[in-house]
Backbone:
């Protein structure tokens, strides 16, 4: 089992703190208010470089010293940033070659943040010099509880197309393929006269006049993810040389950032940490929060993790930045805890008065403490204090959903059957349907041992290796249940089509074969024989050994199967070949009972025999559920029926069974 090194005991409360933006008298007020709010952990020095090293080689630590001592004196632990996330202006002025280059060959200038090329040796040397100084100075300071490497690595700069990156890409390709002929075969370079004769001829996939080579694109994503991970390792090695404190960086498991393959990153974290912001560009932001939390737990190997950033209210980077209604932030926070978080932190402590984030919410808003936002923070703090005993427990789940960044990168290539089909839409739809049926889902990587699961869901998993596909087939043969949705199993890791009909890797286990895709235009609908409708996608599908559960009543595939079920070995496998409401099907496959309710989250964490039942009621109406034990939130006994008010939360320590 993966060991996890949480910075604090219990379910802690924390935040980003940017004292560089304020004067020392404000720092003292902050420390006092942090104590009042029960803040236990502050992330400092996240964007500290230009203050710590105002000119090359001139280091000034007085302010950071003072802030750390102030926090220490107030019993607040430090999540210490290495400070390298954004280079100071002197560095990009002296060495413009550190600046990243976009796919169209144009430079991305400083003036924002993260303006550095992940392959730049100059950037790396300067950054590591700073890390060395910071680690040496504070590595053994008793207030330091966690190291925070850089910040959201790859948020803006993951893909750099400069000459230095091109050289790094070539070196990486040599390591992967060994011989140029192997690369030619993997990339299918006979197509469009792309055959390479020498490594030096290979470029990163810069913008071209027409469609680019999809295998090259996916390899560039792989290279870029590994390249930044290598950078993370370089910073971490220095920290470990000077300190025994756990090390992490903040992931971005969200709906709009996808550049790093966190399955390969997560094992290198002492504790997995995620930043999550409700995304109102999605139709349904709250279920996406639950999905992201389940995926973060998957990255943590099922062990507890940290929510490193969330917003107390609105963010500032969406087109319409909605605030949170009273109670909403607490429900969101408890949803993260229910799904495995043992630390809830915010970006940020005090709302900025200047800079690009001055309209981003904070725990302490511009209007001060006589505010709803501040009172909500105090209430959350009290709640986290009351439920502290859940820390260390693990989420109970017997349904898995397979998720893959590699597949995401490749599924959304430049030329595909339908631009309207996106990977996350498929993943979210499956997760949402399970969640609405009260099913807690483990989101795991292809290749993970599946034996403990009674159902495995595979939404839109376009790319899969032979070995991972075989493991899924074996799982069903041994008695497992599997549900696959369209555009799955189409290619191998080289993005090469699995020939012989779709859904390539899953044809046998599903007992179907499709000879052609039949995407639908946006807005078009087809009727299914089970009374539901399909949108977006159909297939010219026939069953081999499966049974059709629903067929198309109209549209291009009239009479053909849309939903099938196959008995395979001792197990059962369903295929859903169109976009349709899967609630009933997933309910049946998961063996769920009870009323569908997408406004209610019921999740159980367990510590040995001890169960903690989390109930989060997103609706305005009260709910009643069977439960017995003690509600830690209200400190009241629960004797058979738990009533949770509209918008309320409960965490019941269940009577040991
Ligand atoms: C994150 C970042 C923070 C802050 C926040 C705003 O991407 O790590 O520094 O910018 O978003 O939502």
Residues:
């Amino acid at each position: 089992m993966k060991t996890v090194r949480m910075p604090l005991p219990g379910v802690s409360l924390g935040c980003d703190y940017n004292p560089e933006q304020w004067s020392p008298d404000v720092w003292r007020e902050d420390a006092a208010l942090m104590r009042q709010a029960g803040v236990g952990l502050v992330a400092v020095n996240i964007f500290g470089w230009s203050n710590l090293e105002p000119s090359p080689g001139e280091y000034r630590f007085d302010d950071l010293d003072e802030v750390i001592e102030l926090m220490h004196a107030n019993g607040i632990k430090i999540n210490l940033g290495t400070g390298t996330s954004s280079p100071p202006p002197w560095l990009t002025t002296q060495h413009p070659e550190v600046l990243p280059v976009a796919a169209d060959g144009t430079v991305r200038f400083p003036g924002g943040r993260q303006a550095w090329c992940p392959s730049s040796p100059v950037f790396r040397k300067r950054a590591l010099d700073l890390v060395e100084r910071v680690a040496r100075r504070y590595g053994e300071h008793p207030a330091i509880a966690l190291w925070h490497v850089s910040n959201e690595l790859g948020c803006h700069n993951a893909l750099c197309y400069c000459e230095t990156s091109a050289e790094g890409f070539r070196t990486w390709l040599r390591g992967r393929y060994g011989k140029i002929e192997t690369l030619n075969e993997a990339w299918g370079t006979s197509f469009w006269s792309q055959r390479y004769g020498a490594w030096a001829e290979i470029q990163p996939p810069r913008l071209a006049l027409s469609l680019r080579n999809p295998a090259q694109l996916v390899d560039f994503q792989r290279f870029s993810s590994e390249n930044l991970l290598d950078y993370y390792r370089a910073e971490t090695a220095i920290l470990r040389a000077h300190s025994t404190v756990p090390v992490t960086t903040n992931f971005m498991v969200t709906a709009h950032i996808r550049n790093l393959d966190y399955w390969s990153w997560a094992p290198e974290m002492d504790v997995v940490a995620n930043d999550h912001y409700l995304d109102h560009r999605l139709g349904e932001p709250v279920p996406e929060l639950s999905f992201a939390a389940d995926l973060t737990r998957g990255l943590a190997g099922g062990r507890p993790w940290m929510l490193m950033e969330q917003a107390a209210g609105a963010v500032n980077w969406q087109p319409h930045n909605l605030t949170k209604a009273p109670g909403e932030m607490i429900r969101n926070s408890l949803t993260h805890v229910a799904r495995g978080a043992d630390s809830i932190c915010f970006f940020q402590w005090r709302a900025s008065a200047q800079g690009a984030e001055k309209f981003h919410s904070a725990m302490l808003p511009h209007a001060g403490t006589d505010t709803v936002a501040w009172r909500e923070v105090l209430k959350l703090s009290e709640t986290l204090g009351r439920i502290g005993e859940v820390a260390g427990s693990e989420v109970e789940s017997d349904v898995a959903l397979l998720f893959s960044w590699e597949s995401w990168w490749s599924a959304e290539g430049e030329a595909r059957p339908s631009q309207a089909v996106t990977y996350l839409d498929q993943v979210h739809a499956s997760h949402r349907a399970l969640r609405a049926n009260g099913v807690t889902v483990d989101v795991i990587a292809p290749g993970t041992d599946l034996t403990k699961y009674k159902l495995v869901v595979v939404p839109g998993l376009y790319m899969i290796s032979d070995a991972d596909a075989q493991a899924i087939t074996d799982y069903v043969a041994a008695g497992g249940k599997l549900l696959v949705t369209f555009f799955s199993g189409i290619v191998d890791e080289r993005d090469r089509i699995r020939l012989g009909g779709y859904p390539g890797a899953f044809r046998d286990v599903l007992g179907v074969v499709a000879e052609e895709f039949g995407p639908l235009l946006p807005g078009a609908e087809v009727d299914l024989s089970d009374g539901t409708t399909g949108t977006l996608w159909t297939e010219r599908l026939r069953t081999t050994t499966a049974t059709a559960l629903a067929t198309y009543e109209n549209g291009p595939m009239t009479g053909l199967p849309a939903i099938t079920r196959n008995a395979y070995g001792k197990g059962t496998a369903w295929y859903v070949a169109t976009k349709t409401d899967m609630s009933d099907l997933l309910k049946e496959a998961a063996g769920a009972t009870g009323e569908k309710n997408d406004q209610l989250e019921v999740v159980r964490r367990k510590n040995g025999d001890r169960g903690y039942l989390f109930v989060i009621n997103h609706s305005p109406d009260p709910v009643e559920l069977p439960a017995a034990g003690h509600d830690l939130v209200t400190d009241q006994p629960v004797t058979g029926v738990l009533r949770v008010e509209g918008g309320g939360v409960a965490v019941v320590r269940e009577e040991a069974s």
Remarks:
- Residues 213 and 379 are 53 Å apart (CA to CA).
- The chain has a mean pLDDT of 97.
